[in-house]
């Protein structure tokens, strides 16, 4: 199916005007809305879950209902002219005693993880009134007050959303009565009618389906639940198909709806001058500021928070297999992909699922969009990911229906309670080479695995590394199990639980284990550098491999690491010249396979006793925090100096993939992805000159097909030129739409910190 068959040749004047106004509004700093401070004290004796739902309902009862002029969808987190921003803030619902008890467990009312794809199919087929009826009926089967409290919390929460929708409908009707524009009045009346039908009742049209999904997505984000959208082309296509068949819509009208829908995800974006690199204060790394990922080396920085200003986990997944095993590509797949492309904005994020039977037209269209830059859509390989989920124990129909959590981690939509943590393989190796002590802080965070200077074989180095990794994995799983249901004591999620498979049926909130699947991703961090470091030790110190000799000892290596290689340039040169991951070099790739096998086997061993309560899928990732991750690491045995950034996700280290893109793909594809159901992207960069014209599109399409055939799991392709990035640094006003990939999302290049901009330029230089 070619794009011209499902998309008009030009945008409507409405879409052009809205797009311009959204971009103009981004440049104005938001004004924070005054959220109600707390729920009414008359509710203080109710169960905490019910009070949480009342806080949600209270916020929605007070949120502004203003409409963006000309929009076809109601409900906004940020208004246009006043830039009033209502995402932040949530009424207090917990008592001081409850907060103190939660704080003793490291939790607060803000301990809402998000990263879930709700069951929007349930929303569209049953409506919130149907969900409410299920909760009411479930009260008769409740065994105790806890189960009753959960069901009551669902009822209060969905009532709050339905009341908010009614307020929006009333605003649409009022605006219709106030305008002299007959055409706009008719649109507003239809918008009011849509909101009177959804989300309380089942969707009857495509317009209503998109309105219902947007409204619930917006409500989740307004109430501390940063959730993804999921497989929207599969969920909403039946409604569009019916509208096209009956003549309620034609394709140009559908395209306009999709464009307006995609623009809604950008209304709260910010690109004002205060966020630009030259307006930010320069703050050095503070080794004491570790992130919440205590097993990661990442240093928390305001820089990273500002860089992520416009990232909200708003991922839409298109294409891929249906639960029945057929290809699910449909006209809405193309509409969503093209709607994202034409807006040239960072949201919604888009991921395209491909497999051997994916239509050539969809692969080609994805390549055309990728050529615009920004690294979207990401490419997920069904062949590899479905098999990995099946190996985890997920039934085949559910495995085929997978989506992501908003970045790239794999979940089953509408059925999964998902959390994750990163575990630094680089820290494990650093500790193995320094008796458990960090070279950055001097603190012993690992275990003492003996004096590395006395290691007489690579096997001893490997064993010390595995022991450190085992201790980290064991400690984390023990911590997870000790705190598994703790969120329910202070931060239940009644509305999200209402739109998942399992909680209402089991009468348990998602945070109490109510969802059908409960998964905790174990994401190995810094894997490529760890592979390179181990391969370098194997080669340079112990003379393993053809034509090598052990001119350097472990004592030399430890001394060089202690000195950050100052005075040890010859050693560093040898380490840098050793085999590296990303070059289809068996010497390095065999180390990588051994590492992944050891990590996944370690997780499986420690998780086995807990499989009845939670699954621990493995993956590999850094997300966009590769600079902060590097800041928390000392020098490494691959020749990397202390504090230098690490590579993104499962990508070769900067400048080390000398065999080009084919070598990188072949190395990555051989890393045992059947053991990595959570995923782990390979992030690659291409120069624009390599993908110009139809020939360039065909070249990219062939690359994607080859990636699928070789067994890779997740691929991102960023198209840019070094000089383009440098020009954007010099003259940001002329490059406002330039976007770059940031691990699991994309950002406006001119809105990134100078450190991040420089890092992207260095990454691109290695490909140009």
The main pleated sheet reads as:
5 strands, mixed
Oligomer: single chain
> Mean pLDDT, nearest integer?
95
If strands are numbered along the chain, what order do they take across the biggest sheet? 3-4-5-12-11
How far apart are the first and last residues' alpha carbons, in Å?
A: 33 Å
The total beta strand count reads: 14
Helix content: 40-55%
- Strand proportion, as a percent range, falls in 5-15%
The 3D shape can be described as globular
From the 3D structure, determine the CATH topology of the domain at 416-686 and 720-765: Anaerobic Ribonucleotide-triphosphate Reductase Large Chain
Q: Count the DSSP helices.
A: 27
Determine Rg (CA atoms, Å). Answer: 26 Å
Derived from helix and strand composition plus strand pairing, the structural class reads alpha/beta
- Given as residue ranges, the uncertain stretches (5+ residues, pLDDT < 50) are none
């Amino acid at each position: 199916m070619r794009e011209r068959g499902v998309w008009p040749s030009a945008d409507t004047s409405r879409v052009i005007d809205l797009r311009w106004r959204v971009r103009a509004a981004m440049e104005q700093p938001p004004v924070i809305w005054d959220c109600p401070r707390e729920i009414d004290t008359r509710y203080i004796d109710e169960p905490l879950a019910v009070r949480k739902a009342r806080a949600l309902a209270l916020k929605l009862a007070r949120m502004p209902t203003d409409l963006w002029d000309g929009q076809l969808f109601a409900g906004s987190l940020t208004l246009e002219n006043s830039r009033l921003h209502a995402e932040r803030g949530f009424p207090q619902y917990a008592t001081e005693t409850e907060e103190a008890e939660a704080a003793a467990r490291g939790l607060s009312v803000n301990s809402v993880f998000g990263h879930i794809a709700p069951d929007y199919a349930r929303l569209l087929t049953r409506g919130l009134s149907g969900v409410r009826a299920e909760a009411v009926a479930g009260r008769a089967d409740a065994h105790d007050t806890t189960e009753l409290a959960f069901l009551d919390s669902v009822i209060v929460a969905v009532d709050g959303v339905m009341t908010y929708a009614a307020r929006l409908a009333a605003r649409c009707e009022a605006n219709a009565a106030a305008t002299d524009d007959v055409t706009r009045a008719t649109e507003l009346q239809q918008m009011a009618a849509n909101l009177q039908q959804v989300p309380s009742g089942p969707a009857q049209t495509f317009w209503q389906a998109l309105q219902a999904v947007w409204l619930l997505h917006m409500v989740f984000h307004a109430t501390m639940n940063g959730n993804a959208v999921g497989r929207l082309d599969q969920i909403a296509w039946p409604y569009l198909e019916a509208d096209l068949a009956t003549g309620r819509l034609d394709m140009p009208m559908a395209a306009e709806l999709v464009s307006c829908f995609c623009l809604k995800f950008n209304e709260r974006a910010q690109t004002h001058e205060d966020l630009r690199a030259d307006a930010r204060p320069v703050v050095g790394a503070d080794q004491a500021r570790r992130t919440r990922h205590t097993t990661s080396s990442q240093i928390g920085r305001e820089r990273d928070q500002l860089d992520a200003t416009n990232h909200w986990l708003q991922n839409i997944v298109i294409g891929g297999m249906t639960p029945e095993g057929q290809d699910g590509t449909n006209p809405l797949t193309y509409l969503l992909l093209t709607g994202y492309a034409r807006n040239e904005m960072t949201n919604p994020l888009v991921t395209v699922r491909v497999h051997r039977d994916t239509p050539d037209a969809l692969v080609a269209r994805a390549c055309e969009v990728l050529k615009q830059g920004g690294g979207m859509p990401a490419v997920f390989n069904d062949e590899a990911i479905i098999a990995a989920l099946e190996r985890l124990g997920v039934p085949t129909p559910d495995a085929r229906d997978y989506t992501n959590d908003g970045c790239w981690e794999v979940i089953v939509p509408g059925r999964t309670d998902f959390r994750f943590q990163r575990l630094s393989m680089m820290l494990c190796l650093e500790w193995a080479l320094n008796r458990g002590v960090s070279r950055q802080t001097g603190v012993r965070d690992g275990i003492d695995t003996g004096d590395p200077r006395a290691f007489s074989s690579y096997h001893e180095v490997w064993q010390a590394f595995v022991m450190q990794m085992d201790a980290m994995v064991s400690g984390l799983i023990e911590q997870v199990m000790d705190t598994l249901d703790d969120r329910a004591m202070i931060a239940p999620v009644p509305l999200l639980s209402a739109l998942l498979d399992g909680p209402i049926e089991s009468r348990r909130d998602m945070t109490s284990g109510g969802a059908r699947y409960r998964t905790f991703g174990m994401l190995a961090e810094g894997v490529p550098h760890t592979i390179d470091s181990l391969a370098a030790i194997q080669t340079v110190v112990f003379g393993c491999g053809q034509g090598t000799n052990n001119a350097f000892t472990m004592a030399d290596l430890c001394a060089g690491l202690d000195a950050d290689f100052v005075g040890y340039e010859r050693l560093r040169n040898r380490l840098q010249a050793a085999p590296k991951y990303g070059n289809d070099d068996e010497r390095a790739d065999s180390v990588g396979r051994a590492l992944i096998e050891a990590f996944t086997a370690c997780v499986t061993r420690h998780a086995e006793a807990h499989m009845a309560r939670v699954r621990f899928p493995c993956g590999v990732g850094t997300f966009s925090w590769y600079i902060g991750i590097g800041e928390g690491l000392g020098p490494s045995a691959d020749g990397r100096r202390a504090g230098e950034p690490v590579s993104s996700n499962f990508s070769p280290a900067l400048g080390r993939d000398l065999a080009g893109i084919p070598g990188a793909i072949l190395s990555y594809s051989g890393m045992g992805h059947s053991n990595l159901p959570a995923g782990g992207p390979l992030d690659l960069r291409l120069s624009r000159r390599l993908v110009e014209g139809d020939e360039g599109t065909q070249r990219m399409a062939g690359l994607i097909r080859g990636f699928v055939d070789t067994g890779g799991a997740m691929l991102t392709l960023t198209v840019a030129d070094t000089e383009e990035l440098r020009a954007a640094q010099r003259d940001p006003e002329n490059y406002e739409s330039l976007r770059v990939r940031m691990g699991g999302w994309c950002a406006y290049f001119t809105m990134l910190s100078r450190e991040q901009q420089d890092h992207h330029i260095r990454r691109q230089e290695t490909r140009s």
